Model the fold of this input.
Amino acid sequence: MDINAILLYVIAPLIAFSVVIFIHELGHFLAAKKMGVRVEKFSIGFGPELIGFTRNETRYCISALPVLGGYVQMAGDTPDKLTGEPWEFYSASKKKRAFIIIAGPFANFISAIFIYAIGLMIGIGVPELPSDIGKISTESSAYEAGIRFKDKIIQVDSKSVQTWDDVQGILLKKKPKEMVQITVLRDENRSSKKTFKLQLSSTQPVDISMLGIKPYISPEIAELVKGYPAEKAGLKSGDIIASIDGKQIDEWEDVTKVVYGNINKALVFSILRQNKKIEVNVTPVEGKMAEGKKIAIRGQIGIKPVVGKIHMQRLSPVEALSEGFLRTVIGTPQYIIMVIQGFVDKCISVNDLSGPVGIFHMAGEQSKSGLGNLLLFIGFLSVNLWFFNLLPLPVLDGGHLVLLFIEKLSSKKIAWKVQETANVVGIILLLSLLLMVTYHDILRCLGLSLG
Done:
């Protein structure tokens, strides 16, 4: 393994895990200090200590297994350690203990806003799509005005444009019902220039999709995903898909429409490879993807399109913080609801979840695109840790909150043996889940979990 691969698939994931775990445990630590509870140990990871130091009665250390979490060990956090001193955890009131417990997940949730914002300010790679127009609905205002498939937009309101972002940027500044003038080049040689006038709809904000046009994406394969049907069938980067089962393919969307609707059905791909026509049989496998607010089951073969030059998109501090807030406060609940609905609809199962191995792989993949993309992944990981830790399972923060709630309702302390038994059950459940998702993670990484 070369140094670049080590940085991408080992160092970057370790940083991602360490950041979210540190923030989580720091939340517990600061809350304990605030509530007057003495912290004996602050550890990132479990197992034997690798390195550490002691300051003000607290031992700070990194342990051998950082990817499995961490912990803040407080004075008097179990009955056998309880001496009745006011700085001990179980000497604190229920409200104080609840505050300490919830502070960890809360720290993950709030920090995600700023992690997202920093990533967006550093910049993320986005495709620089050309201003060529994809297929147009005959009922759209663009078609009625005379705009056609593969026209290339060169001007919007007399302002020159070269990319799809240029077109979007001009339209976003316009008002609903305002007129827009679009100049295009037509024909294979781009020799015919035509100008059309269209009226925007009354919907706000203004978006180019209102006109019924979208960017053209070539049916050329840029990249194949390891272990998926396309790679196994022998398709290669640079292949141009001409037809599937005799159906002519004009753009990438034609490919996805056919593949999505033909799970486990053999399809004949007619491709152009170095000006030679080749036929390849490919059978799409079942895949899950987000569509709107739901998770849908669609056919997948593991290919990616040519999307043009990648450029860095950076937001100003105000824009980045606003976007970070929206992704965390609005986007996270929507994502959680979508996943829960996916389980209810049986679109996804426990086998689709990812554990440490899968997260390591995803972090490595994101780091390929730069620090900004890695930070967005860390932000996403942070809010996932927030949600996971609040699940009402023993050992997790949510389980401890449930026990506190039961204590408050019953006005009696729950026997320590009952708590110990619940913790053992929780550990067994979590380890079983960890082993299951790790097994499927390894299969996915090796490309063996697909048919």
